[in-house]
Specification:
- There is one protein chain.
- With 243 residues, the protein is mainly α.
- It is 66% helix and 8% strand.
- It has seven helices and two strands, in the order H-H-H-H-H-E-E-H-H.
- It is elongated and about 130 Å long.
C-alpha cells in the first residue's frame, strides 16, 4: 500500500513539473543571407566594408538639401500617422508596465481609530487603534504572467517597428515628390523656352509666306508646334500644382 501511495505521489509530481510552463520559449528561426549584394569586384570589397552602410545612414546625411530637410521636418511634426504611431507606442509601453506588474507582490495597508463604549457605567470611552498590512502574491506557477509579459513586450516592439516604418515611408514619399517637383520645374523651363523658339519660327515662316518665299503649310506646321509646346507647358504647370 505504501508503494502505491509513493508511486501515485511521484506521478502527480511529474505531471505538475511537466505543466509548469505555458508553451515553449520563443526561438528566432535561423536565416541564411548573403554577405554582399550585386557582386563587388575584389579590389572594392575592402572599400565597401569601410564605408558607412546606406541602410543605417540618417536621413539628414542622405538628403543634404536644406529645403528638403525643412519639408521632411514639417511632415514628421504635422503628419497624423506619425502622431497615431507615437500614441500607440505610449499605450503599448503603459500596457507592458501593467502586465509586468502582475508578476510582483502587492501590498495593501490600512489604519483606523475606533472609539468604543465598553459598559454603560464606564467613565470614559476607550480608544482602540488598529492597523493592518496585507501582502498578496500569486505564484506564477504555470507561467501565465511571464507569457503575458512577453506578449506585451512583443506588442511594444511591434508598435515601435510600425512607427519606424511610417516614418521611413513618410520621409521617402516627401523626398520622392520633392525631386519629382524639381524635375517638373526643369521641364517647365525647357517647355517655356521651346514655346518662345516655336513662336520665333512661326513669325519667320509668316514673314516668308507673305513675301512669297514659303508655303502656307509651313505656317500651319509652325502653329501646330507652338500649340503643342504651350499644351505641354500647361500640363507641367498642373503637375507642379498637384505635386
Amino acid at each position: 500500500m505504501t508503494r502505491m501511495k509513493r508511486s501515485t505521489i511521484l506521478a502527480l509530481l511529474l505531471l505538475l513539473m511537466a505543466g509548469c510552463k505555458v508553451g515553449p520559449n520563443y526561438q528566432r528561426p535561423p536565416l541564411t543571407v548573403p554577405d554582399q549584394y550585386r557582386g563587388l569586384a575584389p579590389d572594392q570589397t575592402t572599400q565597401q566594408q569601410s564605408a558607412e552602410d546606406f541602410a543605417v545612414m540618417k536621413w539628414t546625411s542622405v538628403f543634404q538639401d536644406d529645403t528638403l530637410q525643412g519639408l521632411i521636418k514639417e511632415a514628421l511634426a504635422s503628419n497624423y500617422d506619425m502622431r497615431i504611431a507615437a500614441t500607440r507606442i505610449l499605450q503599448a509601453s503603459a500596457n507592458l508596465g501593467i502586465v509586468r506588474a502582475n508578476q510582483f507582490p502587492t501590498v495593501n495597508g490600512g489604519f483606523s481609530i475606533i472609539n468604543q463604549q465598553s459598559t454603560p457605567l464606564a467613565t470614559g470611552s476607550p480608544t482602540i487603534d488598529t492597523a493592518g498590512l496585507q501582502l498578496n502574491y500569486i505564484v506564477d506557477f504555470w507561467g501565465q504572467y511571464r507569457r503575458a509579459t512577453e506578449a506585451a513586450r512583443a506588442q511594444l516592439l511591434s508598435t515601435v517597428y510600425a512607427k519606424d516604418l511610417v516614418q521611413t515611408t513618410l520621409i521617402s514619399l516627401v523626398a520622392e515628390n520633392y525631386f519629382l517637383l524639381l524635375q517638373y520645374d526643369a521641364q517647365l523651363t525647357y517647355s517655356n523656352d521651346t514655346v518662345e523658339a516655336d513662336k520665333q519660327i512661326l513669325r519667320l515662316n509668316t514673314i516668308k509666306y507673305k513675301g512669297g518665299d514659303a508655303a502656307i503649310t509651313d505656317v500651319y506646321q509652325a502653329q501646330v508646334l507652338v500649340q503643342q509646346a504651350e499644351a505641354q507647358a500647361i500640363t507641367l504647370q498642373q503637375s507642379i500644382a498637384q505635386t
